[in-house]
Every structure is written in structure tokens, then in C-alpha cells.
Amino acid sequence: MHISARLKHRLPFLKWPRPSRRLMHSELLAGLSVGLMVIPQGVAYATLAGMPLITGIYASLLPALLAVLFSASTRLSVGPTALTAMLVSASLNGMATPGSAQWVNLAVWLSLLSGLLQIVLGYARFGWLLNLVSAPVLMAFTQGAAVIIMTSQLPALLGLSQGWADWLHPGNWNLFSMAFGLTSLLVVLLAKRLKPAFPTVLVVVIGSAALSWMLGLEAQGVAIVGDLPQGLPQLYLPQGLAWETLKQLVLPALVITLVSFLETASSAKVDNERKGQHWDQDQDLIGQGLGKIASALSGAFPTSSSFSRSALNLYAGAQTGWATVFSVLVILLSLLFFTPVLHHVPQSVLSAIVMAAVLGLLKPKAFVRLLKINRVEGGISLLTFGITLASAPRIYWGVMTGVLLGLSHFLHTRLHPRIIEVGLHPDGSLRDRHLWNLPPLAPRLYALRMDAELDFAASSDFERAIADHLARHPDTNHVCLLAHPINGIDVTGVETFAQLHRQLANRGIKLHISGIKLPVETALHRAGELRAGPFLAMYRTDAETLQAIKELDPLPADMAAAAI
Question: Which of 166, 447, 493, 507 is exposed most, by the fewest CB atoms within 10 A?
Fold first, then answer.
């Protein structure tokens, strides 16, 4: 790769278009929309993560800027998200008191570990490892986490100051908090449906703050945001951790890496498809990792790409990373001058913002659809969902269980490939002979097709299928392998083929191979296993194979009837 091209690849902001009046106009509008939305969301998600509220805004500033400068997907909105915030809270539960200095230090370490892991994976071009989390597993885990998030936010939304313990004591309910929370939730949900680009969240926050101040709700026992520090975040250098404590953070950091980047993938794929370009997941890993490092050094928690804010960014007309630069400027001005506005916002309003964000993650019909498509994967998704709920607050066990179950299913599928005996269908295609009740292609011929690579995982079943047929039909004189679905072969596959070929030849059985692909043919040629002989015939196409098979001895009528 040319030096200039390599530099632009590692520094994607060098490829941004030069500012123009027309471009900056659309970028300014998009940046303003996202910036106004992320401020109240950040404060709400900080509550969810158990962090000081101001860290939600800190996590929206430098992390967003670094991520957009070094990511290939420049139109994503990086910052705090509900799912990542929930993972932080779940990971640190029992290790410290939420909001304490120790809790903040542990959250910073989670952000550092996760960010460093993403940077290493990106530079090593190991982005493909994230494919270990299948779509059904992520869907189920996301929905399980959404249920837990909503459950955790309901007490504050309903004004239950002591949590669910107040549910049976109506006298302890704060009706003002409940009214503000439920009204805010209703307004945000309606506006999301009717006017998605309108900064409803910001309007709700400012409106609730004004009403709270005028009604003197703080004096009436309503939990409010309170004072937030003004100014830029100070450099945060985390305190050292004991080895045992650090080991406890490794698994949560791994899960946060996986889940947060899969959140990014859901937005990045849409963005890159719209632009008609290939998604560079490795460079996005680097950019997202740098964003997490910046969040840690700001004293905040791990960040991710927000699907809702990224969608708003696109909807508002963002074309480049300049939109994120403008949104960062909006957040910067808010930190410098406008944090006092948030003082009187009721906590129930923040809960309403979180609830509105995660309600969209609940899609129970997805389970029904998945079960119709594939019962095994549907079952894995249901187990993932159930374990996520059952393991709360350690919800990361849900996604880890789903990953292990998904990999086990994948391995079982590879170890048991689909191998069928084929017959000629009336429409001229070769199909499963037993499924479609078709006669054999020729007398004393076993024609089979394996829909898998001939490797160490599939070799045993491949060999067993032929051996079982020969045991049931000892008069077989021909074996025909329709090899076009076999895309690759490894050393074990070559050895299996060689042994099978020798065994067939020793029994006087001729092996016919149809449509072998070049990589497989090359490997077998190098091993000297495709030498011409009386017990081996090769054909390039199925049509050529069928023509050769027709010249074999015809099957008597009574045998053909018995074979069906």
C-alpha cells in the first residue's frame, strides 16, 4: 500500500472533504441535533451506570471526537449508551458502592481494558473475532438487558424513593415524581413516532427543570439532579488495582468489548451500505478503542456507538465527521455554561429518558420469527434471554452462555455435515433421492453429495456414509461424488480421500468425481491422489457425469422398484 494511502487509512480524518458553506450548513444542523440529544441522555445513562451524573457528559465529549477522527465510519454518534452503561453497573455490582471514588476507578479500568483490547484487535486485523456473537444471541441478550434496565428504572420513574420496598406503602410514593416521569415518558415516545428529528429529549429536560423550579419540587422531597460541576473534565489517572481485583474485571471488559462493538456494527453496516462502500471493521475497532481510552482519562465509563443517535445524525443530513465535531462543540458549550440548567431536573425524568431508549429494544416477535426459521438457534436465543434475566445483575453471563451455545451448535453442524444420496428429479435437477422418492441414477451406483468442506470436521461422517451404504448394498460397483459443494480440503480430508479411494479400488468399485473445484483438485493432485486409472473417472459438469452414468448397465425393473 502506498505511504499516503496507508496514512489516510490509519488517519481517516485526512480523507474528510474540505469545508464548504453548503456542507457545513448540513453538518451544523446534524451536529446540533445530536449534541442537544446526547446531553440529557448522557446524564441519564450515567445514572444507569452508577456513575456521577457529569461523567455522562464527559463520555460524550473527547471520546466522540477521537472516535470520529480515527474511525472509518464517520457518521456514527459515539458516547454513552444504555446497554454499555448497564454492563458497567452489572460488572461492578458488589465490588464497590455506586457513585463512590472506588466505583469510578473500577469503571475507568473497565474502559481502559476494553479500549486497549479493541485497539489491539483492530491493529492485528482480528475484527472477525466479533462474529463469534451471532445475531440471535445478541438479539436475545439485548432484550434481556432491556427488561432488566426497565425494571431497574421503574422505581425512580414511579417516584418510589426506597425502591420496590415502597410499592406496598402508597404513602411513601412521591406523586410529583411519578407525574413528571410518566408524562416525560409519554411525550418522548409520542415525539419519537411523530417527529423523530425534533430534540424532544432536550425540550422535556428543560421544561421539567423549569416546572420543577417554579413548583419548588426539591423542597417537597422530589429527587433531582442537583449541582453539576462546570468546565472541562480534568485528566483522570486511575489508581492501581490488586491483581485479584483486576482479574475480576477481565471477563466484564471482554463482554463490554464484544457487545459495545456489536452495537457499533449495527449502525456501521447501515451507514456503509448507504454510502456503497465496504465496512472497515478493524479501523472502527481502533477508533472505538481510542474513544474508550479518552473516556477513561476523562474519569468516565466505556462508550459505544448509539444506534438512535447515529440514526438521528443520518436523518438530520450528516455527510461526514464534521457533524460530530459540531456536536462536540455543542457539548463543550453546555459544559462551560449550561450545566446549572440541569440542577432542578427530577430524577424520574432521567429514568423516563432511559426507558424510552430501551423500549425500542423489546421485540418479542423476533423470538417467534427465529423459532420458525431455525428451532435450534431459536432455542439458543431463548436460553440466552432466560440466563441473562436469571444471572442479573451479572448479566454478562447471559451473552457468554449464548456465545458458547452458538459455538457448540456451529461445531456440531460442522462435525455432522449434510450428506445425501441424489437422484434425478423430473425437473432435471439432482435432489435428495429418499426425500423425493426418486430411483437411483444407475444400477449398483451410490451417488452422494456432501454440502461441506472435506476437512477434519467432516471427514469422519463422509467416510461413514459411504461405508454404511456399501454394507447395506454389497453389490455396489460405482460410487459417484458430486463434489461441486466441496469448497476446500485439508490434510485430514486428503488422507480420508486417499484411504477411501484405495478401499474402493481393492473392492473393484470405481469412483466417479463430478465438478471438483480447483483448490480441492490442486491439493489432491499434489498428494498424487488423482492419477488416472481404471477405478477413477472425473467429469467437469453434472451433465457430463449423467451422460457417462447412462452408459452403465441398466438396472432391472424389479430391482428399480425395490430400490425406490
Answer: 507
